[in-house]
Amino acid sequence: MKIKQFEDKFLSHYSYAILSECESKMILIDPARDPKPYYDYAIENNAEIIGIIETHPHADFVSSHLEIHKQASSPIYASKLTRPDYPFLSFDEGDVLEIGKIRLRALNTPGHSPDSICIVLEHEGIDKALFSGDTLFIGDCGRPDLRESGGDVNAERMHLASQMYHSLRDQLMKLSDDVVLYPAHGAGTLCGKALSEANSSTMGEEKKTNWSLKEMTEQEFVKELTSNQPFIPAYFPYDVALNKKGAADFQPSVAQVAISEGNPEEQENIWIIDSRKDTEFKAAHQQHSVNIMEGTKFETWLGSIISPEEPFYLKAKDEATLKALIARTASIGYEGQIKGAYFAGGGELKMEALDLQDFRNDTGKYTIVDVRNESEVKEHKIFKDSIPIPLGELRDRIDEIPNGKPIAVHCAGGYRSAAASSMIEAEKKGKVPVFDIGEAIKQFS
């Protein structure tokens, strides 16, 4: 038996292949959008993919389950509570899949979502591993507020949090301490708030160290789980719906994006997502551009600033980077929204650098905008009179920023402030100077 873990470091996503060496058969769990790594692993081991298990319809990435189902003629297994549009076989409490000496046992574990399942792997009759999806993470558990739509959303959040309390205690904590834990996400995901950097653990270790498995009342658990959760990007509900439907095949979909050298034609109602370094962007960029730099959080901020199904242009420093970013855009299901992709272009606009000495001498001469998350501001507000608007909300709240004084924008390290300052500059249309404090914020914090 082999367990292969695959990682998408940009979305902090883990997927898995479970290989029966004696039968040369393989089952996948929560595959990412690009199926090629799984096909390559199957070829490498001369194995047949005989099934794909979805622990729930994911909010933060798009799965390739439907494409693999079609290409490999492999059934998709999911909880019947998912009610997907694609053909599937129900995999719920009491259901078992067997390959060789491996038995995969389904557990219904609502909490992160009503339809979440976990999978226990038995080998030669002994529980060996738990594939916990977004139910149990290393150091944390899944948030309960990503499926709220209509009705009393607070009641739904509280109901799911209560279900999570019981799923963890009535199901997962009953597993042996030596069972290895394989979650669907690690540190950096927005599906939880306190995840470890580790990529696996044991149930024994989690029982000792994971806050969500500590002894506490249900009321105490619900209060903790529903407090201080990170923001929810705009693309999350869209990806849930897309995963319930099943996404288009990856390679043909990204191949349809037109790539050109130069600059896109400027249109006021279509944003240009410029992924170049902030220094290059500030030196020369186009009107109506947002500087979402190529980096580990590109997908998150793209899917937070640009709405699902909203067209945009994508711009990068070179063709290779552009192609990589198109593929990353597809990982959240946004590739069909790219109106055109361009590389090596600059622009006629320039953003002036902030005079740090002048700013330091009298910050009151500036309107300071803090685009960090609410929890970050609450923990430490850097400038007493700053206007706090999280980057994920900025596009809808720019009118709250007055035009009377020059605007200086900051986050915690410069990445978010580059995007925010460029967006504010585009929306203010020259009515007021806009500056990015950038990495210099570290001198004040």
From TrEMBL:
Task: Say which domain of life the source belongs to.
Answer: Bacteria
UniProt domain Rhodanese: residue ranges:
362-442
Cite the CDD domains for this sequence: POD-like_MBL-fold (cd07724)
Sorted alphabetically, the keyword list is: Hydrolase, Metal-binding
> PROSITE patterns per the record?
RHODANESE_3
Task: Offer one example of a GO biological process linked to this entry.
Answer: hydrogen sulfide metabolic process
Keyword Signal (UniProt): no
Q: Which Pfam families match?
A: Lactamase_B, Rhodanese
Record SMART domains: Lactamase_B (SM00849), RHOD (SM00450)
Q: Which GO terms describe its molecular function?
A: hydrolase activity; metal ion binding; sulfur dioxygenase activity
- Is Nuclease there in the keyword field? no
Q: Which InterPro entries match?
A: Metallo-B-lactamas (IPR001279), Mito_Persulfide_Diox (IPR051682), POD-like_MBL-fold (IPR044528), Rhodanese-like_dom (IPR001763), Rhodanese-like_dom_sf (IPR036873), RibonucZ/Hydroxyglut_hydro (IPR036866)
Matching entries from PANTHER family are given as: PERSULFIDE DIOXYGENASE ETHE1, PERSULFIDE DIOXYGENASE ETHE1, MITOCHONDRIAL
Instruction: Please identify the protein, giving its name as recorded.
Output: Glyoxylase-like metal-dependent hydrolase (Beta-lactamase superfamily II)
